[in-house]
DNA sequence: CGACGCGTTGATGAGATTCAACATGTGTGG
DNA sequence: CCACACATGTTGAATCTCATCAACGCGTCG
């Protein structure tokens, strides 16, 4: 089960967290960012495969990822699923439910992970006193819209090879922004999950990886990826990257 | 060119507008909704084909549609476009730019249309004093996220026939909610635009319309659509509708 | 060890795109 | 108000991309 971890006085807080530059306090003055500390009173530890929240659960909190990787997805009545995002440390998940008072998606940990609990009650009331927080929330949501629309563009207009290339470039950039290597990383998600996210089958994804490897763009060993020729990968990705 | 129309004291205002139930004031107490009236000081008239804003334009305002239909789309460096939404009266367009201070998409009128100008400066400052407006903005943005994610699901998992059926059912429902007929309406967008939105070619859309007509689900005369057998259409749409 | 999850690879086929020709509608200028 | 041009829509045939079905390899875990 999920473990709830209460924070003590000497725990790392938002104001001292290295992820601040990606997370909720982005772009807030130090003084305002300090107020975030009141907000986060506990964390949740998730084992791989555990869910953080499920579609239509009550929306008690949104969550900032401290470490680990999550996926969020929608589900159809007939069981078909669509993954709507893979989420890295510093990202906030659950925002898509803010307007309806219940979660609009399901979130699952792809590896052992830890998230900061941000209770929506406290978040809204603090936001009412803190315009900079308000703006930041807006910014996060509108960025999520942009991001989803970029995916629409990808699913709507791009072919398989292009989609996978864009996926890899963008993952690489997000990891690099967080201080990880941009050229060598571990895919926390399965071929099937990548395929689902990109609107492809797992076989197609596997074949494309093989093809990229054969042409010398990537080196692949199971989930371990190394981008050998970033320029070529960007070329495959088309005019996005 | 776009015509700017200043509002006079006796113009219809938010508090007296019939679209209130879809637009910005949704779910706000009458007293708070009254404050909206200060916000909208002018409207803009658009001829068919005119743009309301373009990608990366400065974000001076967001817009509530008073009458007409707009499309919003993204554009790639190589000219490929992806339509991200068709917008009906009562909907707010431009919210996707709120986080970046510039527009994240381009908006074009599909027919002669009129929109209410909502200056973002005034909107933010009013929102800071009016928690109910703040919440409404959140709600609108998170609904847009949900909507885009629904489209991701559609593009990622559904086949052509299903997508078009879902499109028609959802358009029908949105029109019905606005007091129009749910079974007979005019498509303001071309086959090409529908195809682009759904990730299909215009030929495929045309063929599907013909097939739906032949099987007795629809009657089609150019842009005039009549849904003859809604139950069958919902069946084609799969487990969404 | 055997079972199971995950990934790879090949053969085949379906669904959608592309190319092309034609039909119909719409708008403009004479 | 008609004629012509151009945009939009329809339909057919060939083609291609990707999905499906299937077999098999590898690694992990009870």
UniProtKB/TrEMBL annotation, chains A, B:
Q: Which InterPro entries match?
A: cNMP-bd_dom, cNMP-bd_dom_sf, Env_Response_Regulators, HTH_CRP, RmlC-like_jellyroll, Tscrpt_reg_HTH_Crp-type_CS, WH-like_DNA-bd_sf, WH_DNA-bd_sf
- UniProt keywords, alphabetically: DNA-binding, Transcription, Transcription regulation
Q: Which residues form the HTH crp-type domain?
A: 158-231
Which SUPFAM superfamilies does UniProt cross-reference here? cAMP-binding domain-like, Winged helix' DNA-binding domain
Q: Which SMART domains match?
A: cNMP, HTH_CRP
Q: Species lineage, top-down?
A: Bacteria, Pseudomonadati, Pseudomonadota, Betaproteobacteria, Burkholderiales
Put simply, this protein is called Oxygen-responsive transcriptional regulator Btr
Q: List residues traversing the bilayer.
A: none
Top-rank taxon, per record: Bacteria
Its signal peptide is none
């Amino acid at each position: 089960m999920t473990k709830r971890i209460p924070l003590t006085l000497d725990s790392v807080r938002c104001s001292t967290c290295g992820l601040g530059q990606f997370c909720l306090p982005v772009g807030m003055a130090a003084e305002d960012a300090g107020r975030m500390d009141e907000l986060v009173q506990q964390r949740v530890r998730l084992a791989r495969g555990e869910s953080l929240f499920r579609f239509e659960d009550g929306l008690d909190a949104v969550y900032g990822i401290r470490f680990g990787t999550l996926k969020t997805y929608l589900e159809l009545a007939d069981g078909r699923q669509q993954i709507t995002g893979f989420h890295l440390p510093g990202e906030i998940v659950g925002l898509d439910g803010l307007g309806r008072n219940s979660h609009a998606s399901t979130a699952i940990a792809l590896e052992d992970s830890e998230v900061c609990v941000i209770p929506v009650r406290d978040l809204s009331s603090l936001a009412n006193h803190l315009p900079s927080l308000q703006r930041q929330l807006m910014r996060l949501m509108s960025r999520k819209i942009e991001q989803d629309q970029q995916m629409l563009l990808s699913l709507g207009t791009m072919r398989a090879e292009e989609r996978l290339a864009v996926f890899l470039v963008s993952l690489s950039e997000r990891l690099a922004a967080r201080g990880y290597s941009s050229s060598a990383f571990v895919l926390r998600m399965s071929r099937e999950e990548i395929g689902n996210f990109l609107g492809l089958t797992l076989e197609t994804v596997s074949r494309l990886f093989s093809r990229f490897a054969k042409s010398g763009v990537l080196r692949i060993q199971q989930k371990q990826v190394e981008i050998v020729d970033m320029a070529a990968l960007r070329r495959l990705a088309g005019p996005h990257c």
